[in-house]
Design brief:
With 306 residues, the protein is α+β, with helices and mostly antiparallel strands. It is built from nine helices and 13 strands.
């Protein structure tokens, strides 16, 4: 199998994948999107003979456009441009989840400061203001008062970029000091972990403590539905527990209580998994490469049949 990897920086996640691919004697073509030109008609030489392309771009814009070109060159790409477009935009992400019947936090989108302030007041305090594009918990704000709302909205209004004029206002979910990250391939979980923190943001990138998590039937159902909602692929699906208080995260016997339900707040298309690989007994990069091999084989079989 000849694998192309779209990247702009080789992080620990990419090193894990590259190491696993090399251990299996797969041929690898690393494609640095910062140095590559993508012609609308002729594929770059680096795309010649590729069985599959794996998108590991850091920048959302590069990810969306590079995968569009890969698809235009008739090279199977993980994840495809349609998936990237939905997952990279929180508005499209939320709409896709709702349309698929997946529980997700209630959200308003407004285009002016006054309209956004009205949404915030309707949600009540606290509520959350997020950028429509972004990751690692950056530029997210928990708003606790009208004074804070007015200050943050005014700040966003003066930032200049059009994306800051799209106000994504979301209800605050009273999660039990943690959320759940699931790495899944076409809705089939590879492994899951909880990310716990005293801070309201529980991203691993923000220093949250990570531990393995066993998914129950309801969580498995939502992972499958959320994956299908955005188009499937190699995804990071983030859930929050509903009906478990922070003081109840571990009961007297030492067992973790189960949530009454979950809400899916986001699906990620260029998912990081190094933290997950460190806390689970599952060999995560091996499982990902297993899936890539099956993906490439199925694409090859489809071409032969056609």
């Amino acid at each position: 199998m000849k694998v192309g990897m779209l990247y702009s920086r080789i992080r620990r996640d990419e090193k894990l994948l590259l190491s696993e691919l090399r251990d299996r004697d797969h041929e690898i073509e690393k494609i640095d999107v910062r140095k590559q030109q993508f012609n609308i008609s002729e594929p770059p030489a680096k795309f010649e003979g590729l069985d599959v392309v794996v998108d590991r771009c850091l920048a959302t814009s590069r990810s969306v456009y590079a995968t569009k070109f890969a698809a235009a060159y008739d090279v199977p790409v993980v994840n495809g441009p349609d998936v990237a477009e939905v997952c990279s935009d929180k508005v499209k992400n939320s709409l896709a989840l709702v349309e698929a019947g997946v529980p997700t936090p209630n959200t308003d989108v407004a285009f002016t400061k006054d309209a956004a302030l009205e949404s915030i007041e309707d949600f009540g305090y606290p509520c959350v203001l997020k950028p429509v594009v972004g990751s690692w918990g950056r530029l997210m704000a928990k708003i606790d008062s009208r004074d804070a709302a007015e200050a943050i909205l005014e700040h966003k209004e003066t930032l200049g970029h059009y994306e800051h004029k799209i106000f994504y206002v979301q209800e605050f979910v009273d999660k039990p000091g943690r959320d759940i990250r699931v790495l899944a391939v076409d809705g089939d979980p590879i492994a899951a972990m909880v990310r716990s923190s005293d801070h309201w943001l529980t991203n691993a990138a923000k220093g949250a403590e990570t531990n393995e998590f066993e998914l129950d039937d309801r969580a498995l159902e939502l992972v499958e539905k959320a994956s299908a909602a955005v188009g499937g692929g190699l995804l990071g699906i983030d859930l929050m527990e509903v009906g478990v208080s922070q003081s109840d995260t571990r009961n007297a016997s030492g067992d973790e209580p189960r949530a009454e339900d979950y809400t899916v707040h986001e699906v990620n298309h260029t998912v990081e998994f190094k933290a997950l690989n460190e806390v689970t007994d599952v060999d995560v990069p091996a499982a990902v490469v297993d899936w890539l091999e099956s993906k490439a084989a199925s694409e090859s079989d489809a071409e032969v049949t056609a």
